[in-house]
Amino acid sequence: MSKSIERFRELTILDGTSGFESEISKYLEENLSKYADEIKFDNLGGIYAIKKSKKENAKTVMIAAHMDEVGFIVTKVLPNGMLKFETLGGFREDVLLAQTYTVTSYEGKKFTGVIGSIPKHFTAGVAQNVKISDMTIDVGASSREEALEMGIREGAFVTPKTTFEQLTENRFMSKAIDNRYGCVIITEILEEFAEKELDFNLVVCATVQEEVGLRGATVAANMIKPDVCFVVDCSPANDMDGKETSNGRLGEGFLVRLVDRTMVLRANMREKIVALAEENGIKYQYFTSPGGTDAGNIHQALNGIPTTVIGICARYIHTHNAVFDIRDYYAAKSILGKLLETIDDKFIEDVRK
Fold this sequence. Notes:
By secondary structure, this protein is α/β, with parallel strands linked by helices. The chain is built from 9 helices and 18 strands.
């Protein structure tokens, strides 16, 4: 197993939803500190690894990934021991029932639970459209008192419980590819450039609470004040129909994200990225999305920060089992590396116009 794939495994098996990113933050602190001149944290839990340039008055380039995965927060422990919850990030109701979850207490103790579903025997064959507000998590407790004695109380967080699996030579399945992909790539890019002299300060960061409103991104932009930013995030593939025109296809390279509901990619940045990919034989695909990324808040910060998303796509994100193609990751890492080798003051001036 390659180092990149092993990092995907290590990061996706960690549990960390919005507001509860500490497991991922600790992993990144340990791994990024080997290659950084300085590690900083913001007051919401975001982590920043800084490689300083020796150039006087150097510009700053930021690469931003979010740490959080979609999950839940326990809002009530019922008298019968069941857990009520609110979502942290977007889920479809039909992917939740009868699935297993990890419940993590404030103290870090972990429990397995399942969202209850009504057997067909009791439904008279009528489809059940269960709302999330009506769902409960069963952790095996027979009463509220037992659940509390176990260590589960209101405020515990919940994440999908699954494994990291290799499906074929290039395709893998796991939870939390959105966005442990970003956490892998910021680690490996910093490692790759650790011994190289750069004409700009390089800051790789992992933000918090993206899945509930891009909240950590605003903090990151205000704290670092970058001159240019690359957001690394995972988007939904929609290629299950087998059509070549599908929006987001596995194995077709990194995503050039033209537009989403939070940002329009400016033409000057787009053309530089596409030209660089073409010159170096790096596979890419154009992509649009009804969703958004941290780029939505970062590019609007301060007086405007030139920003783009260097993404990959995965099937079935925001579920227990997303499927991605490692070749897309390698393409994203390649273009990001080429961009860092290319950036100078003129590049930054050009993308500001």
